[in-house]
Amino acid sequence: MSTGYYAFHQHFGHDTGEDHPEQASRITALEEVLKATGVWDKLIIHEGKSAHLPDILRAHSKAYVDQLHLIQPEHGTILVDDDTPMSSGTLEAALHSVGTTTQALDDVLNGVHRNAFAAIRPPGHHAERKKSMGFCFFNNSAIAALRAADVHHMQRIAILDFDAHQGNGTIDILQNDQRFLLLSAFQHPFYPYTHYEQNKYTNLINVHLPQGADGEIFRKGVIEQWEPALRRFAPEVIIVSAGFDAHRCDPMAELNFEDRDFLWISEWINDYCLKRRIPWLAVLEGGYNLKAFGTSATLFIAGMLAQEPTQQSETTN
């Protein structure tokens, strides 16, 4: 079966300003590398769609959604929080981020693809139920997880988040709901400095990465902490918040991942899903050095293409 790639042109309307790290050029940089390496030709390309409001309202309050519509500027840019700009095209882009993610989810759950990558912006995993922050407005991964549960009647959904910054919004929305297993690996202590206290949540497993941690430390945490939790939980689908800002060249964090580490985690997830014949979806989060992001995200997507478990799975699963 195939791998789907989902993106949309409306993200260009989300204008964050010349000096902001979360730029439309991120998607352009990724697609240039995908095409140059030939990975693009192995994917099934889809144009994303806008969201359905009921999907958003499973994760966010109506008052919050209404407020975003009220404050969106007709011209120029405002700051929703200290680092989250909103322009006249931001809401349309955010709605397409949600809709594209749920479109990809529906397709993998309906057997159109074995797995899929949603190249969306703005990202989502910092968006809490009633709060925009960290470049995020709607929590794409949490919305997809709730759709998997409520529309597709999945009872066990795992969300894996390997961004350098913890997905506080995903935890805020899905905390202590036993339908969801939340696995998170992130630099600690670091932004957003909340929702990392594992003993407060019954469905959260953290891998704390100290400043300067490399891919070997990350791999050890995944194998020793994530893998046993996944085995116990036995998910029916996996949703990945895929962040690439742990790369050693990324300006937004202080970790030392190499390109190959993002290929490794993709192969690890893919192997797990192939062995158990379950679908999975990756949703773009961070990654801000354009060269490093383009290369590492392309390797991650290349790892999704394998149709049989790699040798790695024989030693780690």
Describe the 3D structure.
The chain is α/β, with parallel strands linked by helices. It has a single domain, classed as Histone deacetylase domain (Arginase, Chain A, 3-Layer(aba) Sandwich). Helices cover 40% and strands 16% of the residues. It has 10 helices and 10 strands. The protein has helices at 25-37, 53-59, 62-71, 90-109, 140-150, 168-174, 215-233, 259-276, 290-304, 311-316; strands at 3-7, 44-47, 77-81, 84-87, 115-118, 157-161, 180-187, 204-209, 237-242, 280-284. The strands form 2 sheets. The chain has an 8-stranded parallel sheet, sandwiched between helices. Strand 3 (77-81) and strand 4 (84-87) form a beta hairpin. Helix 1 (25-37) crosses helix 9, helix 2 packs across helix 5 (140-150) and helix 8 runs parallel beside helix 9 (290-304). The longest helix has 20 residues, at 90-109. The chain is globular. The model is unreliable at 313-317 (pLDDT under 50).
| Unreliable segments of 5+ consecutive residues | 313-317
Give the radius of gyration. 18 Å
Q: Please give the largest β-sheet.
A: 8 strands, parallel
Number of strands: 10
CATH class: Alpha Beta
Q: Give the number of helices.
A: 10
What coarse outline follows from CA principal-axis ratios?
globular
Distance between the termini: 22 Å
Number of structurally distinct domains: 1
Question: How would you state the average pLDDT, rounded?
Answer: 96
What letter string, H or E per element, gives the SSE order?
EHEHHEEHEHEHEEHEHEHH
Q: Helicity, in percent?
A: 25-40%
Let me know the CATH homologous superfamily: Histone deacetylase domain
- Percentage of β-strand residues: 15-25%
CATH topology: Arginase, Chain A
Q: Given the helix and strand composition, which structural class is it?
A: alpha/beta
- What CATH architecture would you give? 3-Layer(aba) Sandwich
